[in-house]
Every structure is written in C-alpha cells, then in structure tokens.
Amino acid sequence: MTNPVFDCFQSCLANISSGQELVLFNNESYDLGCIGQCSSAHTQSYADTSPKYTLIIQIISVVLITFGLFGKVFNCIIFLRKPLRGTSTGLLLLLKTIFDTLPLLCTFIFDTKFFLKDEQMNSSRITCLLARSSDIFVSWSIGFVVLCCLTRVITIVHSTRLPQCTRLHVFLLIILMMICGACYNWHVFYYKSLQKHKDQDFTYCNVIFGRQIGYFSFNGFEPTADLLYNAPIVNFVVSSLIPFTIVAITNIIIIKRVLKSPTTRLSKVDLHRNGAISSSSSSSKSSSQKRFSRSDPNRSSLRHIITKKDVSYETTITLTTSCVFLTTNSIASIYVYVKTSRRAPRNIIHDGAKLTEDVKTSNVYLILRMLTLLDTVLEFYIYFLTGKKFRKEFFHVIGEILQHSPLRKYFKFKRTSASTNNTLPIIKENKQNKNVNSNGNILKNNTIINSKFKTSIITCNGKQEMLDRIESTV
C-alpha cells in the first residue's frame, strides 16, 4: 500500500519545469510550490482522520473508566474494613487506589477531549499543569505499591538489622516517596516557549507523553533537546525496571517466609503486624498486656481477635496487587521506549509517514494508559475468586448498600434472612454473657452471705465460750 504523501512528493520531482522556484534535497530538485500543496493536502487529510482517533479513544475511555471506577470503589471499601482496617498495608493500598483514580479523571477530562479542547488547555498554565499532573499520580501509585511490599517484608522478617516499622516510620516513608515522585516528574512544571512551538493542530501543552520531553509538529515528534540524559531510557529504568526488581524480590521473600513457613511464624507476625507492636518474639503474656493497656480496649480487643487467616489474607492481597499493578502499568512505558528508541532517519519524503506513525504512537500510548485501569478490575476478580473472606465482605457491603437504597423492598426477604442469620449468634452471645454475668453475681452474693454467716457463727461461738469461762471461774 503506497503512501499518498510519498506519491505527492514524487510527483513534485517529476513535474520540474524551468522558471519555477526549486529546492535541492539529496542531489535532487523539487518544486517548492508543489511541496507546499502536498503539505497542505496532508494537513487536511490529518484533520479529517484525527477525529476518528479521538472517537476511538473516547469510546475506549468510557468503557474502561466505568469498569475501573467500579473496581476502585469496592477496593476502597474493602481496604477500609477488617482485617485491613487500621493496618499499614490497608493504608498504603487505599492511598494507591485513590491516586490511581486521579490519573483516571485527568485522562477522562483532558485526553478524551470531552470537556476541553487543545486551545482551551493551552490557554492557561494552570490548566496545562493539571493536564500533565497524571504522571505524578502514576509515580505515587507505583511508590505506594513498592512501600507496601517493603513494609510487609520488614514486618515479616524478624532481624536485628531491620527495625520494626511503626506508624511514624510509614508516614515518613510516604512523605519521602511523594517528594521524590514530584521531583522525578519535574517536566510537569516545564513550560517552555509556548508560542514558538504552537501551530494549528498541535500544542505544546498536551504532547509530552511518557516523560518523553518533546512536542508534535507537522514534521512528527520533535524532542526539545534540553535534557542532559536519555529520557526514554531513564523512564524505562525508573518506572519499570527498578519497581519490577523490588517487587519481585520482596514477593519471593514473602512467599518463602510466610506462605511456606510453619504456623509459629505466623503467630509471631500476628503480634508484630504493621508496626503496631515493636517487641521481641520471646515476650511473655504479661508484657503484651502492658503494651495493649496503653491503647483503648476496643483496639486491643481487635488486635487480639486477629488470626493467622487474616495475616495470610493480607499477604495474598499484597502479592496480587503488586504483581498485577506493575505489570499493567509498565506496558505503556515499555511501548513508548521501544517506539522512541527505533527512529528512522529524517527525510522530507517520509515526513508524512513519520507524522502518522507518531500520532498513532501517541494515541496508542493514551489507550495503554487507560488499559492500566484493568489492574483494578483484575485485582477485584482475583480477590473475589481466591478469597473467601473477600467474598464474604463483598456480599456484606452489597447487602448494606441495598439496605439503604430504594431497592430494599425487592430484597427485603433476603435482607431479613441474612440479618436474622447474622443477629442470631449475636443474640445468643448476649444471652450467654448475661447468663454468665448473672451467675457470677449470684455466686458473689452467695459467697458474701456465706462469709457473713460464718463470721456471725464465729462471733456467736466466741461469746458462748467467754460466758462458759466466766461461769467456770465464778
């Protein structure tokens, strides 16, 4: 299949006539007026095909955003419930899910052209900054996943060289990671010479993709040449290679130390989970009670209720989230790295094909960025298929939502049966507690009565003995 731009330029080479303005390129003469006509024709053809790419991106974005938001909402609800509630793993996964949603909204608002066009995005630096800010949120999401794996490994591996992570340590790590993520994405605040790189269809604001510093023109993707390093290679190493290595190592350690370890180790992890307690594994029950006495009784009771299944459940969620998230998020950066590292030599005849290829690269990159929403959907279904506790919590959340919705009339029988099944053991426990308390009170009263009766008998016996002694002496 021939390229119409290439054929047009070839016709400019064939229709050379004297008296016309010529341009010399590669030892061949071209008609400058014919080249201008071919360029304008290519511009019009791109203007006709550009809405097709936009329509495809809009359709894909609506579908993926719908499923992505569904999975993210339920994941946030599950992370806020027991046994992940109040743990560093639940906190980090919750923040990761929230900062996954923000790039989703940025993509939906700025990249799909539903609400803002290129001219509106290019009108102010604040709008341009918001349009570019999705890269910061993606970096923070990767950082939260890496921190989740690292804190989980530090919690599991009991070593003198690795201190137990407290809540203060986790908070400081989160702040440090967010600062590093903002510094790494410095190009978000980079706003160079907007009028110089502005033309009819492409603007400088929305063309920086995948941290590949550059802009689009009618000659294709043009790098700004202001960097002292190779941006695609640095992006590939920082966004894909390093997180993959860290997560792979931590996951291997987690699998080896927890999933294949005896139950005694899980009980130790139970006591040391998520930086709540920082004591040695040989502590006695009295010392553990002293540590729990500093907190309120409700939290201490919740910590005592934590079982080995909860620890394995938390570990399974950490492994699943880290593997799926980094796999789906690395596809876009790898794609851009491959496409930008293999560039054909620039040629005026191939500029049309080069521009078309760069436009396709940009659109495919946006689609791959939106495909990262599938990580939440995959995580949700993996949790649902493999975790009995997750299914139980999910159905419980659905029941609570239906209970406060207009559909409660249609689900009244199921809801009442479920509620009665849930309330029966609670009522039984309350009755048992009342019986135990009443029995305890009865026993206390009996002991008090018996002690008083015994003391009265003893006093009576003492008085009788004193009277007998007096009578005997008299």
UniProtKB/TrEMBL annotation:
Protein location: Membrane
Gene Ontology, cellular component aspect: plasma membrane
PROSITE patterns per the UniProt record, alphabetical: G_PROTEIN_RECEP_F1_2 (PS50262)
Spans annotated as Disordered: 275-300
Segments of skewed composition (Low complexity): 278-290
Keywords, sorted A to Z: G-protein coupled receptor, Membrane, Receptor, Transducer, Transmembrane, Transmembrane helix
GO molecular function, one term: G protein-coupled receptor activity
Membrane protein topology class: Multi-pass membrane protein
Domain G-protein coupled receptors family 1 profile: 71-383
InterPro entries according to UniProt: GPCR_Rhodpsn_7TM (IPR017452)
Main location: membrane
Descriptive protein name: G-protein coupled receptors family 1 profile domain-containing protein
